[in-house]
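hey so i finally got around to running the thing on that chain from the lab meeting. sorry it took forever, my laptop kept dying and i had to restart like 3 times. anyway pasting the input first so we r on the same page abt which one it is
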Amino acid sequence: MAATAIAASTNDTGFLGHPRGLAYLAFTEAWERFSYYGMTSLLALYMVQQLLTPGHAENVLGLGMLRHLFEVRGPIGNQAFASLIFGWYSGLVYFTPVLGGLIADRWLGARRTVVIGALLMSAGHLAMAFDASFLVALVLLICGSGCLKGNISAQVGRLYPAEDESWRTQGYTIFSAAINIGAVLGPIGCGAIAAAYGWHYGFGLAGALMILALCIYLAGQRYFPEGRVAAKSHHFPPMTPAERTRTWMLVLVILLTVLPNIAYPMIWNIGIVWVNGHVSLATPWGEVPASWFNSVDAFASIVAVPPLVALWRWQAKRGREPGDIGKIGLGSMLTGVSASVITLGCILTPAGSRVAVYWPLLSFAGMGVAFLYFWPVLLALISEAAPPKMNATLMGGAFLSLFLGSVLMGWVGSFYSEMTPAMFWALDAAIGFAGGVLILALKSPISRALSTTDDHSVALP
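ok and heres what got predicted. didnt touch it at all, straight out
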């Protein structure tokens, strides 16, 4: 049945020259990402300004027990507690898709697993409307994202014939654009509603858009491949010594990307708290919500792709394009540069004054460009260099870098209230720079170990 569905899709080009199923999947993911990033843009400030304050904290089920668990180094303030919650929530969102993939592959299939994920996420967003169910809401969102995130992406590939790599790559490019559009609009929409009517209305908008995403997905069911696509049986010979070396080198690169994955998402956690407390947000039409800044890096990652690809092509013609490892190292360095921009803004701002808005705008945009340098290139490198027997495993392992980075980001962020803003952002910059220095220092031996052709340079589609 799956083969029939895929074959039929080759004759269906009703959406920008692509199967109609892509339209439903892209719009589902756009509104799901709207709800996710919209909620995330409010989360840190909501915890610090309302949820963890007297009169609210005691109403949250299980919050006291969680606080006791996190206070391993002694009593912590509300900001530190909020940062730890944010870090674990963000990290587990990237960890659970591994489990969601197993559920889909072995038991339920992608369709039903995605529907369950969307229902769980809708319930989670709606549960955010009440203080008491805050932790329940986070658990629902984590589990729902795990069921939905990887499986809906896998369904995109199943719309296309296996041999048509170019057409499939175009489809994923359109799908990725939908993700970025949702990531830009979510913080703007939810932030505006929260600023005008209150936190819970902002979370309510995220829930409403998640329900819309579910409705779009259900409406497109007939355009998706049926059930699971049975994997072909592959009998790979044992790995050669060179393949084992490549595998361990890729594991090393994944571990090194944990450092930029600490520095970059700090803007979604401490960055929003800092903007709200230290940046001039006044305009002739009133103050801009701090949560809107969570759209800046996503917007930068959209508009920067064409000039970045053009730059890499220009460098390639002159034999100066960095290889994959070089690009990953430069991306980590750029996270350090971007965090340093905030440090510089703090230092140059007179005491008692608010930091000019262009400092965080430049910093957040720089983080979006840095992400393009290290994350997509890492996935492309693994896809190309990993031995066939370990390719899927290492692809899944790459997302553990996001898990570890997010959890450690929350821990580092818990020290924010114990430092000056300039000192804290200097620390964040140092983490990004450290990753860049380590990766670039190890560039030559890693590149030699990974080489299966003379050039592993990868450009974004």
